[in-house]
Specification:
Chain B: Keywords: Endoplasmic reticulum, Membrane, Repeat, TPR repeat. Chain B: It is a peripheral membrane protein. Chain B: This is ER membrane protein complex subunit 2. Chain B: Its main location: endoplasmic reticulum. The structure holds two protein chains of two kinds. Chain A is built from eleven helices and two strands. In chain A, strands 1-2 form a two-stranded antiparallel ribbon. Chain A starts with 11 loop residues before the first helix and ends with a helix. Chain B is mostly helical. Helices cover about 70% and strands about 0% of the residues of chain B. In chain B, helix 4 runs parallel beside helix 6, helix 10 packs antiparallel against helix 11 and helix 12 runs parallel beside helix 14. The chains are: A mainly alpha, B mainly alpha. At the A-B interface, helix 2, helix 3 and helix 11 of A face helix 11, helix 13 and helix 15 of B.
């Protein structure tokens, strides 16, 4: 049973030589990471015309569908564009490698063999490495140098379960869990410096902890990362269904335009 | 000297922002700056200025100035697609079209994603009268770069120049999808449909143009611009529809209440000519005599595009 009112008195040198240096090092390493990622980023690769065409094919049907409920074009025009697009999506006319021959079902581009997709993956992996390596190095450094003593007292109480994690290296059975070691100070900084990075480096910085934002918004985690190859065959099939929906919603603005005009000028 | 520089820079930046084509003035102001090597002092703006000056110089046939600008740009940005376009434009001014076309072909083989080069190629084809090839290339270009509204309008005008009015309406329908709130394209569609002999469709689209333009004006207001032209169009269509039976290639139904529409169109056009004193008097007389009971000769006009 730990006595409630015991409070340890810590050497102020701990504060000067551990607390501030860890924070300072983490800030500087974060800024360094940001600039390294910027330097490593290669300019976006130029796409060939077939690839551009494939990428923008979806825009055609999206443009058509956007105004389908109040469409400026008459029904016969709308239907001919819509059916032509649907047939093209079905047959894969817009795919960069051409429509699939014969009965072979078209497979999505294999990332290993498609050189363009490979580059996207490499870029993603490079950023991951840059993020992870400094983290491991700093953790090792802290474990090596700043082990075996208590650094700070957390302002909020915690359960006993956290003792083993936050007081690693200090084997005391009845010290309050609020006294934690330097490794936990590292974790606190790790999660907390996001705000500071946003202040110094602007909103779009590469030093911030992206895994945290992913956890916060599960929707964003599910969305396609831009580096990954998109499966256009599936996208085209989905767009074909969307076209069918939109055709159901279609209505021409010119249907009763004469009634509107006559009524407006009081002739009807 | 520096004050005139400052004002020259300011007006040049203004021209760039508004895309004005005041080539002679740009050349005069720009030459001062070029000679005093202000390009190095302008920083990042220098390159946009050099491009503007090069285009203006080519426009007024001062090729030495243009060559100097392009030389500086090419030194700074080797292998830039934008500099390639400028070089192509410079070549178009003095070289025969075959050489220029070959140059563009080579560029496109090297980099098939350069939209600006496609457009220059098409413009050279149009200029030398190779309309069929131009139409083919333009259709190919629009197949890839679908959202270029001006491209679709240009295609429609090319078709119209060959009297292929139905194809022109199809091209304009894409332009309408991309810019649905633009009444000028709706009006062009209506007039092209009229020329393609699809009178019910033309009538509907004329009324649609009026609908878009006059959506927020009261019914007492005086029609201007697009509205007058569209009301004229409605009147013409009503006249033709009452004279003979018209079939519609796009299966558009005939507008209901034709005689009421006729009256309304007449009223609206005459209102436009009644406003503003005596200078409209001759116009008003001509218009009202035209509006009156027409002779049943069944002649139809083609709209001038």
């Amino acid at each position: 049973m730990s006595s409630p009112a015991v409070s340890l008195y810590l050497d102020p040198q701990i504060r000067d030589w551990v607390l501030f240096p860890i924070t300072l090092v983490m800030i500087l390493v974060g800024i360094l990471r940001h600039y390294v990622v910027l330097l490593l980023q290669s300019p976006p690769k130029k796409l060939a015309r077939a690839a551009i065409r494939e990428q923008r094919a979806l825009i055609r049907s999206q443009v058509l569908r956007a105004t389908s409920a109040n469409s400026p074009i008459p029904p016969s025009y709308y239907r001919s564009i819509s059916s032509r697009l649907a047939a093209a999506f079905e047959a894969g006319t817009y795919l960069k490698d051409g429509p699939s021959e014969g009965d072979a079902p078209s497979t999505p581009a294999n990332p290993m063999t498609d050189p363009a997709a490979m580059d996207g993956m490499m870029a993603g992996m490079k950023t991951q490495m840059v993020m992870m390596v400094p983290q491991m190095v700093i953790m090792g450094w802290i474990n090596f140098f700043f082990q075996g003593f208590v650094l700070i007292k957390l302002p909020f109480p915690l359960t006993l379960g956290f003792k083993s994690m936050l007081q690693r290296g200090i084997e005391t059975p009845d010290m309050d869990v609020r006294w934690v070691s330097s490794l936990s100070w590292y974790f606190l900084n790790f999660f907390g410096l996001n705000g500071l990075y946003r202040l110094i480096l602007g909103n779009d910085n590469s030093a911030a902890d992206t895994s945290q934002t992913m956890m916060a918004s599960p929707f964003a985690a599910g969305a396609n990362q831009p580096g990954q190859p998109q499966d256009y065959v599936k996208l085209f099939k989905a767009e074909k269904d969307n076209l069918a929906f939109a055709e159901g919603l279609y209505s021409w603005m010119g249907d009763d335009v004469e009634t509107r005009l006559l009524r407006k000028h009081g002739k009807l | 000297m520096s004050a005139s520089f400052g004002s020259a820079l300011h007006s040049l930046a203004n021209y760039r922002a508004h895309n004005t084509r005041a080539s002679q003035e740009v050349l005069e102001k720009g030459k001062l700056l070029l000679n005093s090597n202000a390009a190095s002092k302008l920083g990042d703006d220098a390159w946009a200025f050099l491009e503007q000056l090069a285009l203006a110089a080519i426009d007024v046939a001062k090729y030495d100035v243009a060559d100097e600008c392009i030389r500086q740009l090419a030194a700074k940005f080797p292998e830039s697609p934008r500099v390639d376009v400028l070089t192509g434009i410079r070549m178009e001014a003095t070289q025969p079209p075959q050489i220029v076309l070959k140059f563009y072909e080579e560029l496109l083989e090297a980099d098939s994603s350069n939209a600006a080069i496609y457009k220059r190629q098409i413009s050279v084809l149009i200029r030398t009268g190779k309309i069929e090839q131009a139409v083919l290339k333009l259709s190919e270009y629009l197949d890839t770069f679908y959202s270029d509204v001006e491209g679709w309008v240009e295609l429609a005008e090319l078709y119209s120049s060959c009297n292929q009015y139905t194809f022109a309406t199809q091209a304009l329908s894409h332009a309408l999808l991309l810019a649905p709130q633009n009444p000028f394209y709706v009006l062009q569609f209506a007039e092209t449909a009229y020329s393609a002999d699809d009178i019910p469709l033309a009538a509907k689209m004329f009324m649609l143009a009026i609908d878009i333009v006059d959506r927020h004006t009261s019914d007492e207001s005086i029609p201007t611009g697009v509205s007058i032209r569209a009301w004229y169009g409605v009147k013409l269509c009503c006249r033709v529809l009452s004279e003979r039976s018209c079939s519609s290639a796009s299966e558009t139904p005939l507008p209901r209440n034709l005689n009421l529409l006729d009256e309304l169109a007449t009223e609206r056009v005459l209102t436009a000519y009644s406003a503003g004193g005596t200078d409209n008097a001759t116009g008003r007389e001509l218009v009202s005599s035209w509006m009156g009971p027409s002779d049943r000769s069944g002649t139809r006009l083609h709209f001038v595009h």
